[in-house]
Amino acid sequence: MKVHLCKKVVQKFISILLCVSILSSSMFLYLPKNNIINTSNVIEITQEEINIIDNNTIEVSDNIGNPQITSRSGIDRKKVEQEKTIYEIYELIINNKTYLYFDNLDKVEIQKDYLIRNTENLSVYINSITSESLNILSDEFTINNTVENYILKYKKKVTCFPTISHRVTSTYGNRATRNDFHSGIDLAGNYGDNIYAYKSGKVIKVQYSNVSYGNMVLIEHDNGMKTRYAHMSSIIVKNGQNINCGETIGYMGSTGNSTGNHLHFEVIINDKTVNPYNYIF
Ligand SMILES: [Zn+2]
Question: pTM higher than 0.70 for the full model?
Answer without folding.
Answer: no
